[in-house]
Amino acid sequence: xxxxxxxxxxxxxxxxxxxxxxxxxxxxxxxxxxxxxxxxxxxxxxxxxxxxxxxxxxxxxxxxxxxxxxxxxxxxxxxxxxxxxxxxxxxxxxxxxxxxxxxxxxxxxxxxxxxxxxxxxxxxxxxxxxxxxxxxxxxxxxxxxxxxxxxxxxxxxxxxxxxxxxxxxxxxxxxxxxxxxxxxxxxxxxxxxxxxxxxxxxxxxxxxxxxxxxxxxxxxxxxxxxxxxxxxxxxxxxxxxxxxxxxxxxxxxxxxxxxxxxxxxxxxxxxxxxxxxxxxxxxxxxxxxxxxxxxxxxxxxxxxxxxxxxxxxxxxxxxxxxxxxxxxxxxxxxxxxxxxxxxxxxxxxxxxxxxxxxxxxxxxxxxxxxxxxxxxxxxxxxxxxxxxx
Length: 389
Known about the structure:
The chain is α+β, with helices and mostly antiparallel strands. It is about 35% helix and about 20% strand. The protein has ten helices and 17 strands. It has helices at about 50-90, 90-95, 170-185, 195-205, 230-235, 250-255, 270-285, 290-305, 315-325, 350-360, and strands spanning about 30, 35-40, 110-115, 130-140, 145-150, 155-160, 160-165, 190-195, 210-215, 220, 240, 245, 305-310, 330-335, 340, 345, 380. A seven-stranded mixed sheet has the order 13-8-3-4-5-14-17, sandwiched between helices. A hairpin with a 3-residue loop joins strand 6 and strand 7 (about 160-165). Helix 6 packs antiparallel against helix 7. The longest helix is centred in the first third of the chain and has 38 residues, at about 50-90. The protein is elongated. The N and C termini lie far apart (about 140 Å). The mean pLDDT is about 80.
């Protein structure tokens, strides 16, 4: 028997669980100092990066860049229109103003708003009357704003021209004389804004209209929108029902111009001044709304198109921010008044107007107009003075 080329080993197996080698350590293991160290085997595994953090940071950066781009575009659009509006105001008008002490952001200021009447009618052709005169006062220390309406028929002393209706001053000497006339009443005028009322409606359309709360129904017949005289003869007039309503440019301008309400004969030129304050406040509210601010890069130039003013772009933005911060409970509405005369004048007698000017300037507590007197002077916090008290 030939020898086998291999050896056979026989052995026994110990009863019980067979011993095995320990498994090699894998993953990360903490040392005594608490740090994690790789224990092998194989290549060091890489951590999965959380990519969502990158996306969040990227979105935030894009949003900030968009906001900055929008702000720059809005400012440039508004500045272009305001610079043109600054060029429309003559040097003589600037010289008639009282210098502003400090910034509009921190100092009290008085701004004269003049609404020039350039309606294309035969009766008014060639005239330069001011259809509305409102003085706006800002009080940053107490976070308040005040509006003072000056009736256009108020008899006042026009510097160098004797006594006349206050709106005649603009016709005689333009903005410089109108400013000096208002100052002669005891009102400092630091800035002026002249509004072309015919172009004013384009500004209202640009911001999407204004929301007005009409306290009582109004019907008035003037500036017929129809084409023929026959149609105008049968036309019932402009009508504004009671309640809140959105008014576009032309109808908002008509609302501000209504002098004789056929449904309420007790209304007067003073009531119209209250409606003008309503429109001004509503327009300011719309101009500082989120929807208008988003569209500002496209409508910024139109905002200043009907204006002539000495206010710079930053000043107008400060005024808008100031109006946005001031609520109705911190807004004062005032009006000058008097006694109607047979010559069409409104005679301010008895010192009532000076007392109202003192209230308007914050030197005394506001008092409402005397009840039952549609032409009485006075002030009221909150809502504009529209109807006889």
